[in-house]
Design goal:
The complex is a heterodimer of chains A (113) and B (115). Chain A is 0% helix and 50% strand. Chain A is an all-beta fold and 113 residues long. In chain A, strands 2, 4, 5, 6, 9, 10 and 11 form a seven-stranded mixed sheet that branches. A four-stranded antiparallel sheet of chain A has the order 1-3-8-7, with no helix packed on it. The model of chain A has no long low-confidence stretch (mean pLDDT 93). Chain B is mainly beta and 115 residues long. Helices cover 0% and strands 49% of the residues of chain B. Chain B contains no helices and twelve strands. Chain B has strands at residues 3-6, 11-14, 19-21, 23-26, 32-38, 44-50, 56-59, 62-65, 75-77, 86-93, 104-105, 109-114. In chain B, strands 2, 5, 6, 10, 11 and 12 form a six-stranded mixed sheet that branches. In chain B, strands 3-9-8-7 form a four-stranded antiparallel sheet, with no helix packed on it. Chain B has a two-stranded antiparallel sheet with strand order 1-4. Chain B is globular and about 45 Å long. The mean pLDDT of chain B is 93. The chains are: A mainly beta (113), B mainly beta (115). At the A-B interface, strand 4, strand 5, strand 9 and strand 10 of A face strand 6, strand 10 and strand 11 of B.
């Protein structure tokens, strides 16, 4: 078990470009979460998958954001028409339904210039 | 809505000093409470947890007691080490009907331990 992995670790993009991040959860975990962490703040919940179904989305997740988890394995988070306010660390976590402890990946740091 | 408030940092201590990082919460029902730690350049790691009132979570010399009457979950360690320097996050997880398991975090407290 190699833990939760995220790719890329760092992404610099220009305003208006689209970006996509990938998260590979721990293999037997059926729950997957995305969070966003801005400088000096704690992570904020974005969205949650149980297997391939996206069951909850935060109001933080504007229509420029989309997340998928095909086949209930890895997940992708896409941001379209990036804005400077999207600059943040994007964290992925996975868990079993029970007991539900979440294991976090190292994060993808996005910088929008 | 549900929320977590932590004491502001940074907290700077000398090695072997006593540590307290305050955390209070607002939640409906009876949430589970967590402390996560983020070492420089690494991902969040679960440090300890408590799932019901009066439970004490402990790990690596750190402790926190779930106090329902004061809605608090303060983190303590009797003798800190330089290697404890990190950012500490208090978090809660509610058990509502949706049962998503999402975590709500405080803003984090940076601890710096000097030799």
């Amino acid at each position: 078990d190699t833990g939760v992995s995220q790719d890329p670790r760092h992404k610099i993009t220009k305003r208006g470009q689209n970006v996509t991040f990938r998260c590979d959860p721990i293999s037997e975990h059926n729950r997957l979460y995305w969070y966003r962490q801005t400088l000096g703040q704690g992570p904020e919940f974005l969205t949650y998958f149980q297997n391939e179904a996206q069951l909850e989305k935060s109001r933080l997740l504007s229509d420029r954001f989309s997340a998928e988890r095909p086949k209930g394995s890895f997940s992708t988070l896409e941001i379209q028409r990036t804005e400077q306010g999207d600059s943040a660390m994007y964290l992925c976590a996975s868990s079993l339904a029970t007991p539900g402890e979440q294991y976090f990946g190292p994060g993808t740091r996005l910088t929008v210039t | 809505g549900d929320s977590v408030t932590q004491m502001e940092g940074p907290v700077t201590l000398s090695e072997e000093a006593f540590l307290t990082i305050n955390c209070t919460y607002t939640a409906t029902g009876y949430p589970s409470l967590f402390w996560y730690v983020q070492y420089p350049g690494e991902g969040l790691q679960l440090l300890l947890k408590a799932t019901k009132a009066d439970d004490k979570g402990s790990n690596k010399g750190f402790e926190a007691t779930y106090r329902k009457e004061t809605t608090s979950f303060h983190l303590e360690k009797g003798s800190v080490q330089v290697s404890d320097s990190a950012v500490y996050f208090c978090a809660l997880r509610t058990h509502g009907s949706s049962n998503t398991g999402k975590l709500i975090f405080g803003q984090g407290t940076t601890l710096q331990v000097k030799p």
